[in-house]
Amino acid sequence: MAVETITETTQYLTFKLEDELFALDIGKVREVLDFTSITKVPQTPDYMRGVINLRGSVVPVVDLRLKFGMAMAEQTVNTCVIIVEVELEGERVVMGAMADAVQEVMDLEPDQIEPPPRIGTKLNTDFIKGMGKHNEQFIIILDIDKVFTSGELELVQELEGAAA
């Protein structure tokens, strides 16, 4: 969904990674959990932190800082796991996204959202839905369905199958 297709007010869950503010469409968010112990799965990429038990279901957890090339952070009382639903070839995949802290749920009007920056041809910014502006601060609005490649999401499904 391009910025041009955002024609109505949308609610977003905002969260911090380092000093940057990110947002996810609230419709993709199931819940926010306090950080819990994560079971590491061998031979997975660094950003794939492992799996958690969510009411009897195995849910893979990704560290968004590492996925976006940021430094790993120490866990704090604010560290949380945002449980999201991602579309993969018509199927819904539930996964956890680690964030430094959740901020708030906010409404953004279409005129508060600009297209993602054109950074160059070598950098893939398809996963950025747009740049929100709120109180003179930029908010990077993520398209969670495009943050992960289909190969990465297949790995997530394999993790779920192996741990079940």
Structure in words:
This protein is mainly beta and 164 residues long. The protein has one domain (10-163): CheA-289, Domain 4 (OB fold (Dihydrolipoamide Acetyltransferase, E2P), Beta Barrel), CATH 2.40.50.180. It contains 3 helices and 11 strands. The protein has a 6-stranded mixed sheet. A 5-stranded mixed sheet has the order 3-6-7-5-4. The chain is globular. Residues 9-153 form the CheW-like domain. Pfam families: CheW. This is Chemotaxis protein CheW.
List the helices and strands and how they pair.
Elements: E1 10-17, E2 20-25, E3 29-34, E4 48-54, E5 57-63, H1 64-67, E6 80-88, E7 91-99, E8 101-108, E9 113-114, E10 128-134, E11 137-142, H2 144-147, H3 150-163
Parallel strand pairs: 2-11, 5-7
Antiparallel strand pairs: 1-2, 1-8, 3-6, 4-5, 6-7, 9-10, 10-11
Short description:
Helix content is 13%, strand content 46%. It is mostly beta strands and 164 residues long.
The shape is globular
Radius of gyration computed on alpha carbons: 16 Å
The arrangement of helices and strands along the chain is EEEEEHEEEEEEHH
The CATH superfamily is identified as: CheA-289, Domain 4
* Known CATH architecture: Beta Barrel
If helices are DSSP runs of H or I spanning 4 or more residues, what is the number of helices? 3
Question: What would the CATH topology be?
Answer: OB fold (Dihydrolipoamide Acetyltransferase, E2P)
Helix fraction, binned, reads 10-25%
CATH class: Mainly Beta
- The average pLDDT is 85
The total strand number stands at 11
Q: What percentage of amino acids are in beta strands?
A: over 45%
- Measured between the Cα atoms of the first and last residue, the distance is 34 Å
Pick out the low-confidence regions.
Answer: none
Sketch the major β-sheet: 6 strands, mixed
SSE-based structural type:
mainly beta
Strand order of the largest sheet: 8-1-2-11-10-9
Count of discrete domains: 1
Protein name: Chemotaxis protein CheW
Domain CheW-like: 9-153
Pfam family, one: CheW
InterPro entries: CheW (IPR039315), CheW-like_dom_sf (IPR036061), CheW-lke_dom (IPR002545)
